[in-house]
Amino acid sequence: MKTKQYSAFPLDAKERVSSNPVICYPLEGIDFSNLHLLHDARKHMINVGEIIISPKDAKTFQVKAGQFFRIESIEGPQVGDLNLFQLNNLDEKFYSGKTRALYGTHLSTGDKMFSNFPYLRSLATVTWDTLDWYGYDKDGGSVHDVIGTRCDPYTSKLLTNVDYHYCCHSNLTRALVNEKGLKKNEAEKLVHDVLNVFMCTGFTKDTKQYFMKSSPVRPGDFIEFFAETDLLGVLSACPGGDCGTEHSSDNIKCYPLKVSTWSVPQEFLKDLHGSKTSSYNRNHGLD
Questions:
Q1: Which pLDDT score is estimated for 6?
Q2: Cis preceding-peptide flag for 55 (omega within 30 of 0)
Q3: What is the 3-state secondary structure (H, E, C) of the chain?
Q4: pLDDT (0 to 100) of residue 265
């Protein structure tokens, strides 16, 4: 491992490092009033469809605005990589970086999945998480992260000099090609940084490197979302299985994941505040 080289301490080093941290994006400006309405609405959910994601593969799915969807472990501990798009405008997609800046490194109940610029609106809200009991462990790890980008064949090639085609990046690309009829190059450009569903991750305390450890997910566990606009989802069942040892190989036992879609009578959603795209005028100081 490369050893870090440190420069000499300046005379005012203590003063420079003594300032207090300030939250960059206080959440007071975000409307959380929908959550209690959604918790009431979900008591009346009706299952309207489901798909199974095979191990080391991905599938697309559609969710209408006002529906809920769940990602569920069904046979064994398995993590998944989730991409979200606005169904009728694939240029609008999940923005993990800004979502992370707002909520932190891992998502759970009540957190929103924001879209990229210039839209910057909530695509979906997390309404239930059976793993929210996990919190943060002694290593600083937690589940459902927005810090890992997705396993991909390019990094795999860089580190191992092996071509591996079933990384989540490739799985997501393949699903967009096979199921949506997109060209390979077009599909790959649309694939974006993911929500690592069920994955247990953090940063090491010494070197601050991204780490993964065995996911606590078990059959019957799920994370549930409310769609705030019409959505196209793409989910990959990661080749790392529970990501307790490695990924980007065929060495690990993997399991399928289930995506189910749920509807509720509209009367239970009538008082919700809708998600709207940013009203910024996009002048950028140029006019």
A1: 76
A2: no
A3: CCCCCCCCCCCCHHHHCCCCCCCCCCHHHCCCCHHHHHHHHHHHCEEEEEEEECCCCEEEEEECCCCEEEEEECCCCCCEEEEEEECCEEEEEECHHHHHHHHCCECCCCCEEEECCCCCCEEEEEEEECCCCCCCCCCCCEEEECCCCCCCHHHHHHHHCCCCCCCHHHHHHHHHHHHHCCCHHHHHHHCCCCEEEEEEEEECCCCCCEEEECCCCCCCCEEEEEECCCEEEEEEECCCCCCCCCCCCCCCCCCCEEEEEEECCHHHCCCCCCCCCCCCCCCCCCC
A4: 97
Amino acid 137 reads D
Distance CA 188, CA 202 (A): 27
d(CA 64, CA 230): 4
pLDDT at 13 over 70: yes
Picking from 132, 145, 245, the residue whose alpha carbon sits closest to that of residue 202 is 145
Query: How confident is the prediction for the chain on average, in pLDDT?
Result: 96
What pLDDT sits at residue 15? Answer: 92
**Residue 75 Rama label (left phi>0; alpha psi -120 to 50; beta):** alpha
The tens digit of pLDDT for each residue in 210-245 reads: 999 999 999 999 999 999 999 999 999 999 999 999
Q: Where are the domains of the chain?
A: 51-226+234-266
pTM over 0.90: yes
Which residue's structure tokens are 């990229």? 116
